[in-house]
Amino acid sequence: MLTISRTLSLPESELAERFLRADGPGGQHVNRTESAVELRFDVARSPTLPEPLRERLLARRDRRLTDEGVLVIQARRFRDQARNRDDARERLVEIIRGALTVPKKRVATKPTRASKERRLAGKQQRGKLKQTRSRKPVID
């Protein structure tokens, strides 16, 4: 079980791990061992996730989320497989925890009269400054 919060945890059966060869440090050993981890979690078809949480996760513009709704996390930061595996799981937990909180709705506001006047005064001032930079035609 992968614990997300006190009320939510994911069973191991919903996580798919694949091990691959990682690039980076490790010398010749890196060519023989599969230390990188690719963790896949099917957000769209997970029976564990509550519907509002699933919608928030799928609505994110995240390059790790495929068109089919599968979240793919690649971990190759460390040189050994166990640490990369833990890293991938921690990153999955952080992504799901981030979607647990419901974002506040934005309340639309209008600019005040004073702020509109300040904006227009600034525009006029910049316009006058630019006019002074231009060359005046010489009249004979």
From TrEMBL:
Enzyme type, top EC level: hydrolase
Disordered as annotated region, ranges: 105-140
EC number: 3.1.1.29
Keyword annotations: Hydrolase
Domain of life: Bacteria
Molecular-function GO term, any one: peptidyl-tRNA hydrolase activity
SUPFAM superfamilies, alphabetized: Peptidyl-tRNA hydrolase domain-like
Compositionally biased intervals (Basic residues): 125-140
InterPro entries: Pep_chain_release_fac_I
Repeat in keyword set: no
Record PROSITE patterns: RF_PROK_I
Residues covered by the Prokaryotic-type class I peptide chain release factors domain: 21-37
PANTHER family tied to this protein: PEPTIDYL-TRNA HYDROLASE ARFB
Name of the protein described by the UniProt record: Aminoacyl-tRNA hydrolase
Species: Dyella agri
